[in-house]
Amino acid sequence: MSRSAQHLQEAADWLTRLQRPEVDETDWLAFDAWLSEPGAQEAYDAIQAVDEEIFHRGPAMRSALTKPRTATARQPFAVDWRWLGGLGATAAALAVAVTVAPWGELLPQPDTLYTTAKGESRAVQLADGSHIDLNTDSHLSVRLEKDARRVTVHDGQALFDVAHDAHRPFLITAGDETVRVVGTKFDVRRRDGQLSITVLRGLVEVSTDGQDEPVRLRPGQMLEHTEGAASITVSKVAAEDQVGWKSGRLIYRDQPLGRIVSDINRYFDRPLRLEGENTADLRFTGVLIVDGQDAMVRRLSSLMPISATPTDDAIVLRGRPSASH
Fold it and tell me: Are the C-beta atoms of 290 and 249 separated by less than 8 Å?
């Protein structure tokens, strides 16, 4: 095998290796070292071009690959690159798809879903070195690609500590907002159509559907937005308060009781229910320790002008007469 053919073979190996979820910093450093070899960059560019061809023509080629893939699965991993070089673009793409790797390895990796149940938290270490802490009753999905790291926050709250990678931005979609970072620490909350992003370290850019320019957030700033609305607000906050849930504390500064009840209901199966004309609008400032539901309700009732009445299927909170407006 000539040196150029060997580089093509190695490039195909790297293309497959770098698209796997378990790729880590050691792999990327080794890949950078390989690219410095004479002819390696050109070989990798050529293989990437074929990979792009596969991606764009994938749906039409899928049925054509079914039988050849079964037949070649038993063959050793070897490619006659001189023969490949004489093929047209479509045929070359077919040859690489069949001989280099199974179909799925050359298409974007499927999302990995991470969830927590009520009252549960979870720490997730990603293959790129980034760390995610999920709060209770949260659902998000992750896809690590060769040119970007993509997360979708379907519902809930998560604290992100993103590993720096200038070549692969970390992109988070939450409702109609997209957060773009390279390396930083921040909290994303998506509950009941309300979105908030709080930065603890570094910088993040937040793009919202309908907004011409992204908003840049610095440490100690929080962006709040209602999904579908045109407006956003950015305020200065005590950033650590927003992630008090990590240490089992819910910290509030002049928040409505409706928001607090919504948070508590994420931890327990038996719901709290608000009754009374202005009960949901009562304001609260303080700290609630997350332990048993009955204990949390007793503390809340002692700190606010509300009463708590257990029923068969819920705990009803009502504003006391002195709290009416």
Answer: yes
The total of structural domains in the chain comes to 3
What's the gap between Cα 174 and its chain centre? 9
Inter-CA distances, 57 with 10, 16, 49, 93, 104, Å: 24, 18, 12, 9, 14
What CATH number corresponds to the domain at position 303? 3.55.50.30
Residues 117, 67: one domain? Answer: no
Q: What SS3 class is residue 21? A: coil
């764009």: which residue's tokens? Answer: 56
41 has a pLDDT exceeding 50: yes
CB contact at 8 A, 180 and 162: no
Inter-axis angle of helices 25-35 and 3-18, nearest 10: 160
Give the residue-averaged pLDDT of 250-276.
95
- List residues bridging with 190 in a β-sheet: 156, 195
Domain with 310 in it: 248-323
SS (H, E, C) 180-208: EECCCEEEEEEECCEEEEEEEECCEEEEE
Sequence-ordered list of residues with C-beta below 8 angstroms from that of 248, at least 6 positions apart, any chain: 289, 290, 291
Total Cβ atoms within 10 A of residue 22? 8
Q: pLDDT class for 39, splitting at 50, 70, 90?
A: confident
Residue range 84-140, pLDDT digits in tens: 444 444 444 444 443 444 434 444 456 899 999 999 999 999 999 999 999 999 999
Instruction: Give dist(CA 29, CA 27) in Å, integer.
Output: 6
pLDDT digits (tens, 9 = 90+) for 193-204: 899 999 999 999
